[in-house]
Write a structure and sequence with these properties.
By secondary structure, this protein is mostly helical. It has helices spanning 2-18, 25-60. The chain contains two helices and no strands. The two termini are 29 Å apart.
């Protein structure tokens, strides 16, 4: 859920900016470049940061952080 929140929050922010009445094409291009940059950065370290964040939340809630691993089907 943390990952989806990060992604959807960013997309929603850009979407709201793009719906502005005074948005010009140059600003649209910059917004979309920023969105692509966000995804590139998130791919590199966002998942790891989200995992750390979730473990911290679990620790604060005094819950054992158990994460299911996908089993390889051979």
């Amino acid at each position: 859920m943390t990952i989806w929140y990060d992604i959807l929050f960013t997309i929603n922010s850009v979407s709201k900016n793009l719906q502005s009445k005074d948005m010009c094409i140059n600003m649209v291009i910059e917004q979309l470049k920023g969105l692509l940059s966000f995804f590139e950065t998130y791919r590199e370290n966002g998942f790891e940061n989200a995992f750390i964040f979730v473990k911290e939340i679990a620790f604060e809630m005094d819950v054992e952080p158990k994460f299911h691993e996908k089993k390889n089907q051979s």
